Amino acid sequence: MTASSKITITRPDDWHLHVRDGNYLSSVLGDTAKRFARAVIMPNLSDPITSTDLASEYRDRIINALPAEYKLSFDPLMTLYLTNRTKASEIKKARESGFVHAVKWYPAGATTNSDKGVSDIVACYDVLETMAEEDMPLLVHGEVTDPTVDVFDREKVFIEQFLEAIIKNFPTLKIVFEHITTEQAVSLVESASDNVAATITAHHMLLNRNALFKGGIRPHHYCLPVLKRESHRKALVKAATSGNKKFFLGTDSAPHTRASKENACGCAGIYTSHGGIEFYAEIFDKADALDKLEAFASFHGPDFYGLPRNKDKITLARKKTEIADTITFGDETCVPLRAGGHLNWSID
Ligand code: DOR
Ligand code: ZN
Fold it and tell me: Which of 101, 122, 128, 231 could bond to 77 as cystine, CB 3.0-4.6 Å?
């Protein structure tokens, strides 16, 4: 049993984050910049970030929206949104930019703002070839979109129908299987080459699918991929706390307005940036693996992306902090994970 009530680690990075745009962006960005030195910014705006030029403009908006104290310390790592029309030349331009670090593959229709995503990945094979040549990682939302496939099986079926073939056909392509939720995803990543890694969210390690229906329907626990059964949650905690360099931190914090979540057709996404590192400390503490937190949160990600590790440190303490019922989100509100409850670990 780890008795320590404080832990100092190299400042972490968030390798999967949604910050939206406009005044929504300025409402949430401070929570991330307070904790993390860098974050991989997802490109699924309502007008997706499909080019290096759009990524450059979005990056400027993010930097402008940063609270003054983080303007020099926080670096947004930009991504492009893959479409059926993405050209190999755009990948080269992205690589040359120095600020685009990956390309995100959303199967069309899989999740929020994915309609303009990829409907036929085979048609993108020439682009994937260029990405492998340019050492540009492919970030994968790994769920099939076939409505006849059970929603809880969509990640497993995606592995069988798509991911195994991509890994085989592009052995030198770096692939991040994003926000994995199943033991099948853990096994795939463990058995693949070092070019294949995965991010794991805090919410998929804190909650299982019962949280969606506790006493009634719980829209603030709805995300995609959807929460899975307990055995999968346990497999994720085991992978994250194993020390295996293929697994690293990606919050997938995905804010939506309260009204769009508490809705007859509620949006997918859970806001967790208010406890972006603290929730992970709680998970690792409970698993008796606090000694593995630093590598998962601060080393494995930059090592995979070929970026330097951060130099400064943060200290976390086993101390309760209240979580607000809502946060301001643009002109509206957003309900954060564990609203009205507590963070059990806090930044010291
Ligand atoms: O829950 C999710 N929310 N999953 C995604 O893949 C997208 C994200 C969002 O952008 O809201
Ligand atoms: Zn996401």
Answer: 101
- Strand partners for 199: 248
Note whether residue 195 is domain-resident. Answer: yes
Is residue 335 included in any domain, yes or no?
A: no
Verify whether ligand 1 is closer than 6 Å to residue 114 (CB atom): no
Under 8 Å between Cβ of 192 and 164: no
CA 46 to centroid of ligand 2, rounded, Å: 14
Ligand 1 lined by 268 (C-beta under 6 Å)? yes
Find the CATH number of the domain harbouring 175: 3.20.20.140
Assess if residue 127 is contained within a domain.
yes
In 3-state terms the chain splits into helix, strand, coil percentages (rounded to 5) of: 40, 20, 45
Residues 6+ apart with CB under 8 A from 220: 261, 270, 335, 337, 339
Ligand 1 atom nearest to 223, measured from its CA: 1
Indicate the number of domains in the chain: 1
Distances (CA, A) of 286 to 118, 172, 230, 240, 333: 39, 37, 16, 13, 31
Q: Mean pLDDT across the stretch 185-191? A: 98
Residues 222-273: pLDDT tens digits?
999 999 999 999 999 999 999 999 999 999 999 999 999 999 999 999 999 9
The rounded distance, in Å, linking the Cα atoms of 348 and 324 is 19
Q: What is the pLDDT averaged over residues 301-314?
A: 98
Out of 44, 140, 221, mutate this one to test ligand 1's pocket (max ligand atoms within 8 Å of CB): namely: 44
Q: What domain range includes position 73?
A: 13-312
Residue 3 pLDDT: 57
R_g over Cα of the chain: 19
Of 143, 83, 80, the C-alpha closest to 110 is 143
In this structure, are residues 99 and 78 in contact, taking their beta carbons and an 8 Å threshold? yes
Tell me the pLDDT tens digit for each residue of 101-159.
Answer: 999 999 998 988 999 999 999 999 999 999 999 999 999 999 999 999 999 999 999 99
